[in-house]
Each structure stands twice: as structure tokens, then as C-alpha cells.
Amino acid sequence: MTASAGSDAADPAVQADPTARRAVVRQALSVGVATGAYGLSFGALAVAAGLDTWQAMALSLLMFTGGSQFAFVGIIANGLHAAPAAIAASSMLGIRNGLYALELTHLLGARGPRRVAAAHLTIDESTAVAVAQDDARTSRLGFWVTGLTVFVLWNLTTLVGTVVGTHIGDPRTYGLDAAACAAFTALLWPRLRDRDAVAIAVLGAVVAIVLSPTMPPGIPVVVAAAASLLAWRTPRRETP
Amino acid sequence: MSLWTALLLAAGIAFALKLAGHLVPTHLLDGPRVRRVTAALPVALLAALVATQAFTVTGGAFVLDARAAAVGVAVVALALRAPFIVVVVLGAATAALLRAMGWG
Description:
The complex is a heterodimer.
Chain A: H1 17-48, H2 53-63, H3 66-76, H4 83-108, H5 113-120, H6 124-131, H7 136-164, H8 176-188, H9 195-211, H10 219-224
Helix pairs in contact in A: 1-2, 1-3, 1-7, 1-8, 2-7, 3-4, 6-7
Chain B: H1 3-23, H2 32-55, H3 66-79, H4 84-100
């Protein structure tokens, strides 16, 4: 459960470390399992697109950002002549990870090899769990546990997916795509306590939806990030 | 270009994009206004991500289907302070059920 979604969250004493830690680990594991299930689908799709198991695994290990991976194999399925388009598409979907990193670098305070590891684990899921927490220590724990859980499960299920192929069926049949939407909504929820955050979220969502039909995948979300500039203004409650 | 070349190039760009954000000098991000904006960035990005994942189809057209219903159920569950895992399971079950009934 999210720190603020629980009925006991209003009491700061209940949010003492062990409770918050257990809650964030539960979140991390649920997000990891839901995402991991998609790895099966990715592995199967990669093989169908003409990649071998090593190539599918290389994408999950080295690229490690689901949206970009699906876009890459979806386009490369058309043949090698589509390689530049595949690279462009996966890169456009990867821009948002760089924007997440601007906030995560503050939150994590990682240096050296840990910073490189943090960069590799910078994805939607690890970011969402990190920013859903109330204090910096729990955020850091959330980032690392989610990032590592997703990394391990995503790679294992990619491998399984390349072997079992499409026999497991479409993850949408089980509502797994909707599970991801619900999970991100739940992780965003605790941040929507003040009006400014709600305005930023609504503006971001509307901009992304409006731009989606006319722009390549990935770009509407990046443009929508400009909604965060609303936070440039001094918050209302701090104005004299 | 071989498949391996394309793959490693794309993976390299993906990692470089992630790393670039982590390597922006912190003094550039330290002002109170910039701190508020970077703190708001994941909110804007994740809201935009959920919106495109829940309300658009391939090609980007707006659509209301089982995913929208699932997000609606998730929001109601969150407003009722349901635990995280319950919200996620309810979202999946809503979409799975609606699709089993032949909608969305």
C-alpha cells in the first residue's frame, strides 16, 4: 500500500521506518511482478520479430527500458532497412528516463559506480515508487528495490518468453496493461495532495493525449513534462 | 547495419540518455525554483504516461476502453484508501472482465 493511501498514514508515528520500509518493499515487489509478466510478452515478440534469444536478452539487459524495447523490436520486425527508424523510436521513448534522472540524482545522492547503476535502473517503475514515498530514505529504498526487482524479473521473463513464445497468450487478456496503469496511478496518488501538483498532473496528461495523434511515440510525454514548469511559481501557501 | 550493431547502438543511446540526467551538475539544479520544477517533473511525466497508456491506441488516437474503466476503478479505490496491491488487482480484474465480456 502507498504510504498515504493507507488509513493509518495520517499518523506520523505509524510511519516509523519499519512500516514504511515494509510498505515500499511490497510496492516494489508488486510492481516488479506486474512488469515481469510483460517480459514474457517482450521475449515472445522479440523472437517473432526475428531476434534470437541472445539479442532479446541483450536488449533487456543493456537497454532495460520496456517502452523503448517494444518499439525497437516492433520496427526492426520490418527488416534491417528499418534499423535507423527502430533506433530513433527507441531513443525518443528513452528521453523521459533522462528527465526522471534530474530528480532522482538529487534523491539518491549516488556517486561513482552506484551512480552508473542508478542510471541503468532509471525507468518509469523505479522512479514512480521512489517519488511516491514521503521521506528521502524510503524513496531511496523504493528506487533500488524496485529497480533491481524489475531488472531481475524482466530479464528472467524475457528469457522464458523467447522460449515459450506466444503460447502464454496476450497479457491484455489478463488485464496486465490496465494493472500497470492502475499501479502508476496509485504511485502518483500520494503526490496529488496539493492543488499545484494536481494542476501539473492534469496539464501533463491533457498535453500528452492531445499531442499523441500527431507526434511519434515518446515525444508527447516529453513535451508534457513542460507542465512541471508550473512549479516555477512560488507556491500559493508560501506567498505572504 | 547488422541487427547487433543497431541493437547495441540503440541500447547505448538509451543508457546515455539515463546517465545524462544523472550527470547534470547538481549546482545547476540547486535553486529553490529549479528544485520545485525537477520535483514536479516525475508528476508531469507519469501523469502523461498513464494518460497515453490508458487513453490512446497505437497511432495515438484518443479512446475510452477497458483501460479507462480500470483507471476509473483504481481512482475510486484510491479515494477509498484501498491498499496499493488491491488497487492494482482491481485495475487488472476490471479490464480482464470487461474484455472477457467483449468490450474494450
